[in-house]
């Protein structure tokens, strides 16, 4: 099987390793079936997109809607590199899944507006499929409404022009969309379970997603949650696009 490629921007090494392991586990992938480029550390290499079964862009400490002057040099470089890659991905309809940071990145590339109007606090939220989502080959096998892990400061105001809205939630109208036939994005995390989310919250406890003094209460609450259907998005994406 051609490997999948994870494009990561996790500055914290422990978070980066846990994210990679989660995508492997929930994708049902074996050794060597998921490669990774850590863009926060290394420039984007010259990629032959045809060498991969598909590409996934994970979450990030970066916020697309941050003022340009507030972005680090690394973030500005990453955004330029991802824009160039998406030019190829969208034009060729390469299998792609952007998760959290990935939905904003793809959304902006496609002419959407990302701002702070529809951020969601850390936790689970009921995500509801649209009619198009219920008919979609990746999303169509999921329940009509399912819980998913979220925690984001920014979000799309609406699906980008020409995109197909696949799912939304009450506080965040764009939880998933598709461009063309094979380019997907989700606001929620399709690679997380409760313990993985708690670990991530611990790493980002001082980054403004929640009151740091409330971390223990938040962690206890997260341990009572589950979101078993959301990872099926990533698993079904892998199953659909895995190829020799």
Automatic annotation (TrEMBL):
It is an enzyme of class 6 (ligase). The keyword Transmembrane helix does not apply. It holds the Pfam family GATase. The keyword Nuclease does not apply. GO terms for cellular component: cytosol. PROSITE patterns: GATASE_TYPE_1. NCBIfam families: PRK07567.1 (NF005743). This is GMP synthase (Glutamine-hydrolyzing). It comes from Kineococcus aurantiacus.
């Amino acid at each position: 099987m051609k490997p999948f490629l994870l494009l990561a921007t996790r500055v914290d090494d422990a978070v980066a390793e846990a994210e990679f392991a989660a995508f492997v586990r929930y994708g049902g992938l074996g050794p060597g079936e998921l490669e990774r480029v850590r863009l926060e550390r290394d420039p984007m290499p010259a990629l032959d997109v045809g060498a991969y079964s598909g590409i996934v862009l994970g979450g990030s400490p970066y916020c697309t809607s941050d003022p340009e002057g507030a972005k680090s040099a690394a973030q500005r470089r990453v955004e330029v590199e991802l824009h160039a890659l998406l030019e190829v991905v969208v034009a060729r309809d390469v299998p792609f899944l952007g998760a959290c940071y990935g939905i904003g990145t793809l959304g902006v590339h496609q002419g959407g507006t990302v701002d702070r109007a529809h951020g969601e606090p850390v936790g689970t939220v009921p995500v509801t499929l649209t009619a198009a989502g219920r008919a979609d080959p990746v999303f169509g096998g999921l329940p009509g409404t399912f819980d998913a892990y979220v925690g984001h400061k920014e979000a799309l105001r609406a699906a980008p022009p020409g995109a197909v809205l696949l799912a939304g939630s009450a506080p965040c109208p764009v939880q998933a969309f598709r461009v063309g036939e094979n380019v997907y994005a989700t606001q929620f995390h399709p690679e997380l379970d409760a313990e993985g989310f708690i670990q991530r919250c611990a790493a980002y406890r001082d980054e403004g997603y929640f009151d740091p003094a409330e971390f223990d209460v938040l962690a206890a609450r997260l341990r009572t949650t589950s979101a078993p259907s959301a990872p099926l998005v990533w698993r079904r994406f892998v199953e659909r696009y895995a190829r020799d």
